[in-house]
Hints:
This protein is an alpha+beta fold. It contains 14 helices and 20 strands. It folds into three domains: 3-68 and 192-244, D-Maltodextrin-Binding Protein, domain 2, CATH 3.40.190.10; 76-182, Alpha-Beta Complex (Dipeptide-binding Protein, domain 1), CATH 3.90.76.10; 270-495, Dipeptide-binding Protein, Domain 3 (Dipeptide-binding Protein, domain 3, Roll). It is 26% helix and 24% strand.
Amino acid sequence: MHMRSIFSIITRIPLKRAVALVLFLTMLLGVSSAEYFNRDGIHLGIISVATVRTNPLTPVEREFMSLTNMVYEGLMYLNDDYQPQPCLAERYSSTTDGRTWYFYLRTDVTFHDGTQLTAYDVAATAEEILRLAKDGEGRYASLKYFINSISASDSHTVVVKTNRANYGFLYAMTFPILKASEVQADNPVGTGPYYLDLFEPGTYMLLSAYTGWWKNLPDYRQILINFFATNRELISAYEYGNVDGVLTRAITAAQYRGAATAYNIDYRTTQLETLLLNNNVRELSDVRVRQAIRYMIDMDDLVNNVYYGMVTRTDTPLIPGTWTYWNDGNKQEYNRQRAMELLDEAGWSTYNDDGVRTKVIDGKIANLHLRFYVYEEQDNSVRVEVANRIADQLMTVGVECRVETITYKTAAERLKASNFDLCLAAFNVDFTPDPGYLLISGNTCNYVRYKNTEMDDLIQKTLRSAQEFSDYSAALQRIQAMYWEDCPFVCLYYRNGAILTREMFTDARDVREPEVLRGIESIKRR
């Protein structure tokens, strides 16, 4: 650990806390822990200006969830193959109809204060999540679609009744478990490999290894995290060696690829960027026009020249590189000739003096002109550039777009009211591989007003009743194939973040939100 970075923290905190931290770090640095720990510690940096409590049920910053993920654990976790596996639950079973599930807890798990984990803690945590969900709050609000009731039949058995009798149900059971008495606490104890030792909001956090962790002794004795207000400060701290590593979604992180003195690890966020196409408006009600727009998006240009590779391309709402992803040979690619053919077939075959395609509708000449909205995001300043590039690409085949930058609040209102033609919008994708919220007629986030009864049945009657992995996987493939043909909207990419570090601390194959630091507790020992 760098002494310069320690002093940079100390100068930013109140005297009393500074003295406590100096004493702690002096003890840590002065005492050998080789016989107990592989490594003394690692010093990281993230952006955090709004988080004042560590309760994982109501996070306010994305990167901060990577820290709390080291403190709290769920009944289940997702492995490198994106498959649900038992975690705090030693095993599970279900009734034949899949509507009642039983989770049998491990008997060797204790919270950081030494108290035993019980099924009553699990039930209380889920009930708090459901309470928050009633007001649309909390990161795990989608749990309300999976749990009809949850209870403890004894101290080690959790009973869950659900109307989602399918394989995807297990993904919803990855929510973090808190003590029943602390579900609303600011900084509740957890069961994970690290416990919250010191926390000064906006300044620093110290996570120390929990020697009573049920798996094994964590690799690092402690993890020290500095909080920064801007990406410029964060990157500068890394460049000057004040921290060992940083987590960032700043596009400037791309410049460190290939650096001989550092590792640059891409991680996939849950933020899916899309181009929404209002299926209700006259111009876009024809699937050929929607497909033409998809053909005109030059993804290589957007990925390489705007995001500098800091994205994971996707052709559907599911996650590329995982078992959930459609693999049918088709690929979203730029094809100007095919786009022009489709527009001609749709009847937009003549042009006005400005080079805009026209069509006679109800005896009047209509121009192929679309309202294109993009909302601003504090951490994604290039989204407006993406919208303008897409508009320029569409104009080359006679589709005119007026790009207008609006606030997030205004965008939400217009999407809800169906008052748009095109909109560049992002979705925070849920952990469960089920795109029904985007595709089912009239569903929560189906802002494009896509309607297909066959798709509705495929999701509601086939996917959501598939209890076996093979059946669930097959249903997902069919859903994505239908999505591709209908083109209700265009999936662009998942945003990526980057871990810049001088010390490799993970051997995880699939580095993703919110488990960005997954593996730091159990990297293969030297």
